[in-house]
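Notes from hallway chat w/ T.B., transcribed later so I don't forget. T.B. wanted the structure written out for a chain they're using in a teaching module, and asked if we could keep both sequence and C-alpha cells in one place. Agreed to drop them here.
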Amino acid sequence: MIAMGMDRPPTGHDVELAARAASGDRRAYGELVRRHGSAVRGLLRRLGADSATADDLAQDAFMTGFEQAAEYRGEGTFGAWIKKIAARLYLKKVKREARLIFSDNLEPVEDLSVRDTPADAASRIDLDEALKSLSRGERLCVSLCYGADWSHAEAGEALNIPIGTVKSHVRRGLDKLRAKLARPEEGARREAHG
C-alpha cells in the first residue's frame, strides 16, 4: 500500500513551515530552502560573492536559519529574515579576509571578486551587470538596503560606517543604476521609432 502524501513537499505559509522547522521538522525547513534559496544566492551574488561563494554562504545561512528557526516569529517575511542572516555571513567573510575597504571617498575600488565565466555572465540579468559598475561601497549599501531590506542604520552598523555615508552610497549607487539601466531602453526605443 502506498502512503499518501509522503513524497509531496510540505505545504503552508512560511510562518507555519518555520514553526514546524523549529520543532525539528526537516522537511518543512527543506520547503523553505526550496522557496527562498535562489533569492538568497542572488542577493549574495549582488553583494559581490562569486557563484561558488554564494552557494556556500547560502547553505551556511540556511543551516544557521534552521538552528535559529524558533527565533523567527513571522514579524517580517521569512525571505527577508534569511537574507539578513546571509548578508551578515557575507560581511563577516569579507571582513575576515580583509577585503573590505571603506572611506568617505566614493571612488570605485578594485573589484576583488572572482570573475564569472562567459556562460555565467550570459545568464545574468542587466541588474547584475549594472551592479558591477558601482564602487564596492555603493554595491554593498544598495544591495543591503534594497536586496536584503536593511535600514540605512542597520547597514551602517554592519559596515561600521556613518549613516550619512550609507545614504550617500545608496543615493549615488541608485543614480548610477538608473542611468546604466536606462541606456538600453533608450536605444531600443530609438530603433523602434527609427
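Follow-up for T.B.: The two ends are 67 Å apart (CA to CA). Might be a good example for the class.
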